[in-house]
Write a structure and sequence with these properties.
Blueprint: H1 2-5, H2 9-12, H3 18-25, H4 35-60, H5 74-83, E1 90-92, H6 98-104, H7 108-116, H8 149-166, E2 192-197, H9 204-216, E3 220-226, E4 229-230, E5 233-234, H10 235-238, H11 244-248, E6 255-260, H12 264-279, E7 285-290, H13 309-317, H14 320-330, H15 336-358, H16 397-411, E8 415-419, H17 447-451, E9 456-458, H18 463-475, E10 479-483, H19 494-501, H20 504-507, E11 517-522, H21 538-542, E12 548-550, H22 555-567, E13 572-577, E14 603-606, E15 611-615, H23 619-634, E16 638-642, E17 645-647, H24 651-661, E18 664-671, H25 676-687, E19 697-701, H26 710-716, H27 720-730
Helix pairs in contact: 4-5, 4-6, 4-7, 4-14, 4-15, 5-6, 5-12, 7-15, 8-9, 8-18, 16-22, 18-19, 23-27
The protein binds thiamine diphosphate and magnesium ion.
Length: 733
Amino acid sequence: MSELASTTKEAELGIAPAATVAESFRSWGTQPLTPAQLVHIYRLMFTSRRIDDREIMLKRQQKIFFQISGAGHEALQVAAALALRPGYDWFVPYYRDRGLCVALGVTPEEMFLQAVGAEADPASGGRQMPTHWSSPELHIVSTSSSTATQVLHGVGVAEAGRYFGRFPKASAPATDDYRAYSDVSFRADEVVLTCIGEGSTSQGEFWEALNTASNQKLPLIILVEDNGYAISTPVEVNTPGGNISRLVANFPNFFFAEVDGTDPEASFHAFAQAAEWCRAGKGPALVHGHCIRPYSHSLSDDDKLYRSAAEREADAMRDPLHKLQMRLLREGILTEAGINELEKQVEIEVEAAAERALAAPIPQASSILRHVYSEDYDPTRAELATQPATKGTPRTMADLINVCLRDEMRRDPRILIYGEDVADASREAALKEVKGKGGVFKLTAGLQTEFGSGRVFNSPLAEANIVGRAIGYAARGLKPVVEIQFFDYIWPAMHQIRNELSVMRWRSNGRFRVPVVIRVPIGGYLTGGSIYHSQSGESIFTHIPGLRVVFPSNALDANGLLRTAIRCDDPVLFLEHKRLYRETYGRAAYPGPDYMIPFGKAAVVRPGTDVTMITYGAVVPRALQAAQRAETEHGIQTEVIDLRTLNPYDWEAIATSVKKTNRVIVAYEDMKSWGYGAEIAARIADELFEDLDAPVRRVASMDTFVAYQPALEDVILPQPEDMLQAIVDLRRF
Ligand SMILES: Cc1ncc(C[n+]2csc(CCOP(=O)(O)OP(=O)(O)O)c2C)c(N)n1
Ligand SMILES: [Mg+2]
């Protein structure tokens, strides 16, 4: 923007240089705006609109492939940007925020580069639709198309700033883990702005964000851009009573402002007050701006199909651009010639930017797989493997997970832990007389007591809140190791996991990374766990690119793999089988504070020559029982392979074993159809066909839910007898 705004023509218009004017807003407060400031705003608003208009032409000429505009929102958005500081404060916008981003410093050329899908598109390298913002330099966090997810990211981004303030050592650089690849910066009085449309406030994640922002008194401004419609659905359908300000008014600690979002001066004053409130540490703010949407929802929408002519005309009368133009003329700030001159300058600049973008090369097909995972830290590399210290009494998986969390928290001040009931006691005073909870399975017991409530704390009962905030924390270089209480209840967080967490690195072309660890107790064999405490479903997550999935079967592996998960630079879903937490099987001595196991390295837990059984999790001990019986009762030697990590998985170990035994069973706890074993079986059939002497078998649970009655549960889940039968069966061939 600066090259556009600081032309010599401005001197002729009697206006100060743009940078000076822009700076003047930051401490302006609620004084009336000066002529120079109003002209500056007009220039930014007009630039935003011109880019939209140019893009619409390009879309009609089929030179770009999608268009959604910020038209009608410009006054509100430009005002928000001017009250804050790019590269100092943080911004978590949504797709409508062109005016905001123009005013923060995203250039017209950068916007057009994304519209044409160019390799040089700095926000996504041609991977995201236009207006899906991202700029680490300006502190604009990469945005998705999902409505409302971003508000929880905004919460996490604000919490991260506060965390660095409380734990200054967390910002120290480190070289031997994920910390080597994230820049950490924070300001004591920074503010975070996040934006959302009024329709999207219907999403639960909006309310989950208000909850935490309010409770934590975060320096977060939530801007609700109310254009009266969510595509074709009018505001009263989404918002009971038609006004979001009335609904949120009782949230404690907030500064609230409801403004005419077509009036940049009123909007600016609201943001200036909101920013002051936040910087002073008084709490969050919510600015509700009423604006218009003159260009329909997007170029794929036509509002004439659902809005009356009278309504559209009334909107047009409130067009913020026209209104400000009229004011500049009316107050003698610019003459008609002056306005024409300013607009001509902008048009020339926008046109030149569009031309440059149209000539820009598109991305190479060879780049498609870049940034699905970290290119910096390879969690599969063999050098990560260390030998465990072996002295000491055998300890349970639950114990060694807890110890790993403790070790890593001591080592790395960027780690924080939260989730439902993970704290010892939220009311700290109680800890003088009680032992503390530390998780429903006690995996986090004692961590709050050792590390304090700033690093280990309870979340609200809201799974999207847990993962959404973690994304905000991690985007700023922290390492949230969060817990979802039961796998059965991960589903409210699924949107955040699938559309945000896993895709953040790829969609920002490697510029944002969110290496969160999500620990999740999973699985059945519990006797009475029933439908909602026994689910499997790991294949749903291995089907998500960008997400590592780990599933240990014993205490030592859990310890070593969790350490790798925490130190690595990718998001990890760490599945812990509840049945294995305190089993006698698989206990191990504490392996020491640096014990690591690389991802993608299976363990041959029983060697054999006749049949291969590929498995993981709680099926491992059951497969070993079956293999034992196959040997003693039938003289069959079964090789049992524990995959340990499901994405990545150890194809080499599978292939080596199948080439030796020529018979293979994939055994897993999840439902047989569409499960994890289907992919393994298909790949074996595809790539090892000539090594097979028998069909690939799957032993898994029935295609139904897990029942409460233990006798039924036994039938539903795969048992050692089922595996034994499969082994014997395969010998027939
Ligand atoms: C979770 C989700 N559901 C549905 C959509 C499809 N969608 C995109 S924008 C939109 C309407 C949003 O309206 P509003 O929040 O008022 O924002 P506006 O576009 O009016 O600025 C919908 C339904 C989506 N992107 N994400
Ligand atoms: Mg709307």
